[in-house]
Amino acid sequence: MATFEEQTACVVEALFSDLLGEDESECRSLETDSGEPLRSAGEHPTTFDPTVIASRLRQMGDRCNMDFERVSSEALAEVLKGKMEKFAAAVDSLSRRWSDQNPELAYEKAFLSVAVKLVMHVTEKVPALLRPNQLIEVINGNSRVRNYIEACGGWENLDS
Question: pTM for the whole thing?
C-alpha cells in the first residue's frame, strides 16, 4: 500500500505530465488496496490511477474563477515574479479568500482548486519556473487538506 505522500507525488507528476504534454506517469499502476476487483460505476473505485485523479484536479482548477493578474496578494505577486518559495503562502491566502467569498465551498476544495489553477497559470507563463515538488509539498504540508482527502477515502475517491 502506498503512503499518502507517495500517492500525492504520483498524482502531481501525472498532473504536470498532462499540463506539459509529456508521457504518462510512472505511477499509473500504484494501488492503495489489496487488489480487489473494480466495482461498478456507482461505487467508489478501488484502484489508484493518478492520471484519472490528475484529470479531476485539473477540472477543479478549471472551475477556479480567480484572475491571478487582478488579485491583490503580496505572496501571489512574489510568485508571479518568480519567487516560488512564496507558492504555499499564495495558495493558502487565495484559498481562504475564495472560500470566504463562496461559503458553500469548503476550504480544502478551494485549496486544491486554487493550487491547481495557480500551477496552470504559472506553467502557462513560465513552464521552467515550477517544479512538481512545490505542489507536492504544499498538499502534503497542509493537514486540513490531507485529512479531507483521507476522509473522502483517499485520492481515488476525491470528487472533482
Answer: 0.83
